[in-house]
Specification:
It contains nine helices and ten strands. It is of the alpha/beta class. Helix 1 (21-29) links the parallel strand 1 (8-14) and strand 2. Helix 8 (209-225) runs antiparallel to helix 9. The mean pLDDT is 92.
Length: 252
């Protein structure tokens, strides 16, 4: 068992996030693991997002401004390129962490040698009210099981920076985070899960039926991006639909 330390670079892409970003940033400031930097990439927001970030005086928080609206995957890529840490974590500007999130992940890395760690999730609605359901995750998630269902919530991940950079995927027409985790686990590495709701994920009211069709299309594009042929992609899409219905029936 090795004690793992190291700077964690937290990437937060933000666009018109003034209503939620303070909750996200405050949850980072509350972390019991304090060796982190936060890179907020403002993607040309038209509201007070940038002004809100500037109110924080903590020197660990850096604001990066995009010259033009570029989308989330390009924005995160900019954060990745500016990161100084040995580890990378992602927190969306409308989500939040429990205070012990990073500490528990760093400890698990020391106990297991894990290079990709994710967690379970609790949920909140648009108004930050708690939703009475929790997403459970397995202790280990290899490539073939990950193909059947993406249980690796992007805002829950802690990953080695070198791996994140090696497998980073750009493309807002697919689930680029899913493509990264598939790329990493395809090498034989295993994603390690902590079955605790260390992420509080915001379920936006807009993420209903119309977006389900878009999400399915993006999932198909992800399978094709990582090299699955149409037959294999169709097989795993069947798993995606079934598992997705079971996963989200609690969030209707």
């Amino acid at each position: 068992m090795e004690e793992i330390t190291g700077l964690v670079s937290i990437i937060m892409a933000a666009y018109n996030a003034e209503k939620t970003i303070s909750i996200a940033i405050n949850s980072i400031l509350a972390q019991t693991y304090t060796d982190w930097e936060l890179l907020v990439i403002n993607d040309c927001s038209r509201d007070g997002t940038a002004a809100l970030v500037r109110t924080y005086s903590d020197p660990r928080i850096r604001l990066l401004e995009n010259d033009k609206n570029s989308g989330v995957s390009i924005s995160r890529k900019r954060g990745m390129e500016a990161a100084n840490g040995e580890w990378i974590a992602v927190l969306d500007s409308d989500d939040a962490w429990t205070p012990d999130k990073l500490e528990k992940q760093i400890k698990l890395a020391g106990d297991t040698g894990a290079e990709l760690i994710f967690t379970g999730s609790a949920f909140m609605d648009d108004d930050s009210n708690t939703i009475d359901w929790q997403l459970h995750v397995p202790p280990r998630l290899p490539y073939r099981k990950l193909l059947k269902q993406n249980l690796v919530s992007n805002s829950s991940v802690l990953v080695k920076t070198a791996l994140y950079k090696q497998f980073y995927a750009v493309g807002d027409e697919m689930h680029e985070d899913f493509a990264i985790w598939l790329g990493i686990t395809k090498t034989g590495r295993v994603a390690y899960g902590i079955d605790e709701p260390l992420l509080i994920y915001r379920v936006a009211s807009s993420s209903k039926s119309s977006n389900k069709v878009k999400a399915a299309r993006m999932n198909w594009n992800t399978y094709r991006y990582i090299g699955l042929n149409p037959i294999a992609a169709t097989y795993y899409m069947c798993w995606y639909v079934v598992k997705g219905l079971l996963k989200y029936r609690h969030l209707k």
